[in-house]
Amino acid sequence: MTPATFPETTAPVQRVLGACPHDCPDTCSLVTSVQDGVALRVQGNPDHPSTGGVLCAKVSRYVERTYHPDRVLTPLRRVGPKGSGRFEPASWDEALDVIARRLSGIAARDPQAILPYSYCGTMGLVQGEAMAQRFFHALGASLLDRTICASAGAAGLTHTLGGKVGMRMEFFAESRLILIWGSNAITSNLHFWRLAQEARRRGAKLVCIDPRRSETADKCDAHLAILPGTDAALAFALMHELVVHDWLDHDYLARHTLGWEALRERALQWPPERAAAVCGIPAQQIRDLARDYGTTRPAAIRLNYGMQRVRGGGNAARAIACLPALVGAWRHRAGGLLLSSSGWYPVDRARLQRPDLLAGRQPRTLNMSTVGDDLLRASSPAFGPQVEAVVVYNSNPVAVAPESAKVARGFAREDLFTVVLEQFRTDTADHADWVLPATTQLEHWDLHTAYGHTDVLLNRPAIAPVGQALPNTEIFRRLARRMGLDDPCFADDDETLCRQAFGDRVDVQALRRDGWTPLPVPEAPFADGRFPTASGRCEFFSATLARQGLDGLPDHLPNHEPAGSDPRHPLAMVSPPARNFLNSTFVNVTSLRAIEREPVLEIHPQDAAARGIADGQRVRVFNDRGSYRVRAELSTRARPGVVVGLGIWWRKFGLDGTNVNELTSQKLTDLGNGPVFYDCLVQVEADAAAAAAPQPAVPA
Ligand SMILES: Nc1nc2c(c(=O)[nH]1)N[C@H]1C(S)=C(S)[C@@H](COP(=O)(O)OP(=O)(O)OC[C@H]3O[C@@H](n4cnc5c(=O)[nH]c(N)nc54)[C@H](O)[C@@H]3O)O[C@H]1N2
Ligand SMILES: Nc1nc2c(c(=O)[nH]1)N[C@H]1C(S)=C(S)[C@@H](COP(=O)(O)OP(=O)(O)OC[C@H]3O[C@@H](n4cnc5c(=O)[nH]c(N)nc54)[C@H](O)[C@@H]3O)O[C@H]1N2
Ligand code: SF4
Ligand SMILES: [Mo]
User: Quick one: what percent of the chain has pLDDT higher than 70?
Assistant: First the structure.
């Protein structure tokens, strides 16, 4: 230590290694500086290669979020009507006693009437689905199908490549051509974007495929602004061109793929003109891209989840995942495709989550993407018991689930018992009977996988819990004890859970020392085929899908609500994330909200002019599901015919206490039963009420 000028006030600054918990492919390694038990700042770990010492703007504000004056610091009991957000503080003993009594009473009748609802508020293996799943499995509660983000693309990838596996992120830096497909990397995959820029400096060409001219599209060499949900048509037209120009790797096709003849036939039905009409772009753009893809080595595709939030999302992911095999791109470590790398991790989920505690019971499974309908359903033989209790953790369904008017109505049911484990009073917490204060990443242990890179990261607590907050694990441990669940697994502490996640399948010494350790993933995993499919080949044709009575080949499936199909709602709407929020997290962090200011709808000047809408004017966006008032931003980021409602704002920050999910539907994707947030038709009109009333000041 260097001697300090005022030793009596200057305690040493400690650096604690952690991991970013957020639902982001980058899973950065964090360094928290702590003095006197207080976190001073959170920075990127310079020694972790993919983090490279850099964090996004959001997590750079993690200290502001952790000590936010609105943190929930004690258990809260509801004292106003549901949704009013009126609560009073209560003790932990009182809260847990009441909750244990209510849940025990319901479980005694039928535990399936209890629904756990969770997603990726934290991606940690420990604070996510470890102790929580043990608890719900021991009760026999309903199971939750966690579909809200990625299930269509995951299914598409798994039916083609065999799992959520692909290129190693770091080798994108050596690619000569990168297709950034359904991804706004600058917003949602910053550390990949750094690699793409490095590739570009070395002469690579970057092509963005996105209906919106995103910040990422601005910085690419070419941008194909296709209509939402038309990606498979584009992929087939690319295949068409690869076939007719013979830009094919015949040897790779013969040795490492399954179903080439059939796929070739289908591709030949998609000349560029046909796809151009479906995608709403010039055929020449497709020809140019096909030439680049067919003649540049190595070529890589960064596919991301933005393209699979539509009816045909699973099939589109399948079609795109076929492309690298056609040109033999997998032969090179800088060629191939990456959607998710999460399938590489040998996580011992059975040990963490203990499905054996179900002891032969087979509870029903409810889909988290249709929670709006399911909370409003009565008991029936097909559905089972009405949902009587919901326990929410790591998620904010009232804001993020589709068709949110119904979700809010479901959560407002007076006869529903709702417990929400939260750091803040979100829209969902506002509907709770009990809010239980949860720790943040700076306050608990966890272990992390990633879906961008392939390292394992350990998160150590940097500070003591703020207020009376407890880790999710501890809340479920205490509830289990009160409810008489006595399996020894409920005594495992968080460090034990960290050890159980991988057993000895990762380098524990390195994890403890460095905070991270890489998995031994091959540099070019499919250079010699060996895909983790049943056949060991890249499956253009999937026998598994065919056995289910589905098409064994990928196909283009038009949207549930295709652009141009409904004269009353002529505009397609997509609602991808705002850069300074992470889903609905950080929406309440003052410095970040100041950047995003207020919810907006981007609309092309041509579409605005046709409706007499001026820049900055209040508009009403509506369809048969609902109506949402918001400020219009005239912008060529939106292409004609497509509007963009950047999300995901808390409903209570919206003009009428609603957000963009007021308009989205609970329809599902072709594969994986996923939601279709970007398959949504709307109409937009100038807001008559706004014209009469003075505009309120924009929040600073
Ligand atoms: N800053 C920030 N980062 C995030 C998030 C966040 O909220 N904020 N969310 C995190 C989460 S949970 C996820 S899943 C990922 C999401 O990140 P991505 O996987 O990149 O997905 P999205 O952001 O949903 O959409 C990416 C782009 O796809 C475009 N898109 C919409 N429809 C289509 C389509 O039909 N076809 C094609 N080709 N493109 C389409 C959108 O306009 C958008 O620009 O990001 C993570 N990272
Ligand atoms: N219209 C539209 N809707 C969308 C999307 C879209 O692009 N457009 N994106 C969809 C996607 S991709 C996703 S992934 C979902 C995301 O939906 P969610 O997974 O619900 O994500 P968040 O909105 O970030 O809410 C996570 C909550 O978890 C809390 N949390 C964080 N850590 C902890 C913890 O340790 N303990 C507890 N108890 N709570 C914690 C945070 O405070 C936060 O309120 O939204 C989906 N909804
Ligand atoms: S949100 Fe993503 S980019 Fe930001 S710190 Fe976390 S992992 Fe890194
Ligand atoms: Mo997501």
Answer: 97
Mutation probe of ligand 1 site: the residue of 187, 216, 220, 231 with most atoms within 8 A of C-beta:
187
Ligand 3 atom with the smallest distance to the CA of 58 is 4
State which CATH number among 3.40.50.620, 2.40.50.320, 2.40.40.20, 3.50.50.60 fits the domain covering 571-692.
Answer: 2.40.40.20
Each residue's pLDDT tens digit, 514-542? 999 999 999 999 999 999 999 999 999 99
Pocket of ligand 3 contains residue 23 by CB under 6 Å = no
113 Cβ closer than 6 Å to some ligand 3 atom: no
Residue 8: pLDDT above 60? Answer: no
Predicted local confidence at residue 688, as pLDDT: 80
* Rg (the chain; Cα; Å): 25
pLDDT tens column, 339-349: 999 999 999 99
Domain 152-339 top-level CATH class: alpha beta
444 CA: nearest ligand 2 atom? 35
Nearest-CA residue for atom 31 of ligand 1: 306
Domain 76-149+345-515, architecture per CATH:
3-Layer(aba) Sandwich (3.40)
Ligand 1 atom 17 nearest Cα: 188
Residue 645 DSSP code: E
Q: Which atom of ligand 2 is nearest to 400's Cα?
A: 47
What is the tens place of the pLDDT at every residue in 397-425? 999 999 999 999 999 999 999 999 999 99
Helices 92-109 and 472-482: angle between axes, nearest 10 degrees: 60
**Burial class, 559, CB count within 10 angstroms (exposed 0-12 / middle 13-18 / buried 19+):** buried
